[in-house]
Design goal:
Low-confidence stretches: none
Structural class: mainly alpha
Order of helices and strands: HHHHH
Distance between the termini: 23 Å
Number of helices: 5
Largest sheet: none
Mean pLDDT: 89
Number of strands: 0
Length: about 80
Amino acid sequence: PFGCVKGDTMTFPENLLKLRTERGLTQADVAKAIDIRTLTYQRYEYGERDPRLSKLIALADFYHLTLDELACRELEK
């Protein structure tokens, strides 16, 4: 299963790295898919920069996840 597992404490940058590597993609592959420079994507993965909402949506769509799954966010019930 891709994305965060229930109870996971993974950070957003850690999840980006996990999602990408589980699929055998390069940083350049993901950057191209969401129409940004590779350096910009690297900064997301290294936790040096937060993506704009439009790029978060593009990442979620690319990985077929919800925004909550992408961000490892779990809502309390």
